[in-house]
Structure formats: C-alpha cells, structure tokens
Amino acid sequence: MSNRAIILARISDAEKIKADDGTVQLDTTGVDDQVSRLTTFATTGHGWSVVKVITENDTSAFKRRMIKLPNGRTEMRTVRPGFREALEWLAADRADILVALDLDRAMRDPRDLEDLIDVVENNRPRVRAESITGSLRLNNDADVTMARVMVAMANKSSRDTARRVSAARERQAAAGQFGGGRRPYGFDSDGITVRPEEAKIIEGMANIVLLPTFGQPKGPSMGSIARDLRAQAVPTADGMPWRPTYVRDVLMRPRNAALMVHKPGTGRKIYTAADVVGRAPWEPIISEDTLWAVVAKLSAPSRKTTPGPASKWLGSGVYRCPCGGFVRVHSSGDRANRPLYRCQIPGKGHTTCPQAELDELVEALTIVIVARDAADLIKAPDTGVDVAALRAELIALRERKTQLAEDFAEGLIERPEYRAGMRRAQTKIEELERQLDDVAESSPLAPFAGIESEDAAREVWEGLGVTARREIVKAIMNVTLKPVGRGKRPTIRERVTVDPIKPAPR
Asked: Which residue, 1, 68, 240, 342, has fewest beta-carbon neighbours within 10 Å?
C-alpha cells in the first residue's frame, strides 16, 4: 500500500506583524509548529512519505461568504483554497493520506466534511484521514458517523461563539465603546481620541467625493484620491501607501459622523441609518448628512462591478459557435441543473458545450494569462509608457528591499545605510505604482496591474463580479466551440478552441 501523505496545517487567526520596512506580514509561528509536529508524526511515527505540505494561515474553517459555484449559482461557502487543493490531490491519486492536527483543524463546516468523505469513499484503495489526536478518522461507517456528529457539534460551538461575540459588539456599540482591532484612521489606538491631522484628511476626501465631477470622465476618483495622498507621503493607519479600496473603506465608516453601528454577519459591510445603535463619545469629523451622502454615492449601483441579471454567465455573448454567432446559456427544462452553451441562430451545424466545465476552463486559462502577460496586455498608446518595464522594475525594487533587510539582519550593513536604501526603494516603488495606476485605469485588466504570480491573480479574479470578468475574457482571448462527432466523448479542452489575444508590439 502506498503511503503518500498530505500535511494540512490551519490557524484561524494569525497575528499581523509590521516589519522594519513597513510591510505587514502574517505571523506563521502557529502553522509552522503544526507542520513540524505533523511531519514528525507522519515520517518518524508512521514511516509515511510527505508529498505535499499545505498551510492555511489566518483561515477560518467556519466563516462563509458568497461565492460562485461551477454551475453558475451563488451560495454561501467556506473559502479554503488549501483544503480544496488537498482534496484534488487525494481524488487524483497523487496522495493517499490526509494528515491534520485534529478534526477541528481540518474542518468545521459539514459541507467540507462531506466533500472529504466523498473523496475517501470513492477512491480505491480507500483514502485515509489521520490526525495526531485521533479525532480525524474515516476508516469505516462508524468513523464517518462519529466525524459527522463531531463536526456538527464544532459548527454549533462556532455559531454560539459568533452569536455571543455579535451580541457583545452590539452592546459595546450602543454604549459608545471601541470594539478593539487595529487603529481606525482618524483616531488614536484607543479608537476614541480623534487625530486632528487625519480628521482633516477624511473631511477633505469626503468633500472630493461629493463634487459633481466625482466619478465622471477626467474628474476625481478613488484612484486619484489615493494617488494624491501617496504623492503627499500621507500614510494609512498601518503606515502603508493608500489604495482606492482603503479610501472607500475609510469614507464609508459611520464612526466619522460619531455614530455607533452594528450589523450581524461577517465580511465587508455597507451600513445604513437603520444600523445605528448609539452615539459615539467624540465630536464628529463630518456631519451625518455628509456621511450618508458619501455612502449613497459610493454604493450607487452605477459604481458596482457585480453583475445584474443581464450578466449572469461568463460566456454568454462572449464565446462563439463555429458558425460565427455568439452562444448563450440554455438552462430550462431538463437542463436546469446542467446548463449548456449553445448557438441562438436557427438551423443545423451548430454545437453545444456544458456551461460549468467550459467556464472553469476559461477562468483557469485567464488566470494563467493575466499572471504572465498583464503588463503587456494593459496598453498605454497615448502615454508611450512601457508597462512591462515598469512591472519588472517594481519587482526588482521589492526584491531589493528584501535583500536590504537580510543584509541588515546579518550585520552586513549599518542602520543608516539600511534606512537610506529602504527609503530610496520605497520612494521609487510608490512612483512606479502611481504610473501603473495611471496607465491601467482605462483597461479592464486594471485590477491586475503589478500582479506577480498566479495565486495573486486568482485572488484578484475571485474578488471581481461577472461583468468585470467578461470584459477581461473578451480583452485577452477568443473562445470558439468546436463540432463534436457523433458518438464521441471528448474532454472540455478538446471541445473548444482558445486563441489568446497577443499583446501589441511596442
């Protein structure tokens, strides 16, 4: 029997550590300790060969968020790319054993457990699941039943904790107390004392958003506000350069108007007047009217990239039939649970393709292409800017900062030389980032400016709505369905032709 083990280490909350160069990184002590213990358990304790180590640092096995499923539906799911990768390895017979510290560390959502059970029971020989505590066992029906009971209890425990925390935060908000966490911009670390210089920045940003020209062509935008603050060397609360998303987050906070709010749930929230539960014990930075006007403007449907009913499918009106016409999704009748892309032009000679499988292929190819070619695909004909060169220089400067930090830690350079080098590198990095922002604003690939890896590209892609994704696909590739011969069962890759759009020569 083969003994190829995958190690899965997970920590729900990891401390954020600010390095000397100003970057913020996650503490890996927890997952590193788990990996060490699990490796010893697998190799020394059982003689297994570790073929893959997967770490999920600062990753909840309980919290869920809305994601798009392969069948096109949007539902609440836990988001755990590492766990999903482990299942793929086990299902593809690239490993035989999943090793975790404990059942709780492996999963707390019943759906995740059921997916693992499917992999365990459908593989021959049967996949094994093991843990140091012995709680993760799926060797027989009794083990599976016990695991289901334990995960259900763990899920209930997490829900009870979340409910108590939510109630406590609501009481704090109603009493005008700071709920803790990182320092809010505009306030001291106590979350209550207003910083006058930062309050002026917030007030100024709010006034810009309320200008009639905000969001209009050649008018101010989230991006221009962030660029101006970076140009003035104004840091965020974490000491980092401003980004458009951070500008938006700061301006949407009811605390700016001295309002305390509470809204159940997790993730980024948009508060309304109905969520106000109390008054804050500080003087407002902006008025309530100004706050709600800013919130209304920044949350207006016209600013959203999340699709409406007209853009439900990635490839409708984007992929083509061999006849040259665009395909649409057919999902009625017996196709309700397995939608198909098919041509809408009457007559014979057309072809079809499963929607979920084709979209999955196109998304995977898109991530590979934008991670590799985004700099060249983001064109700047009006400015003559060489985006590829800017991106290469940006990567080199970031590596330079890392090398400076290592040299200083090893005593190869003195502190004055280290600080001067870091200052020069950071100044240049911010200049390059401003140039990339300027170039990318008009391109559908703008979110991928400066992306350096497929993992980073995938993270950006998953944060986009279908409308934005469709524009990206149209900008980088042509997808055409291929005829399928009678009686044949080709793979999805064999059923389509994907022609990447080459970057324009410079």
From this structure: 1
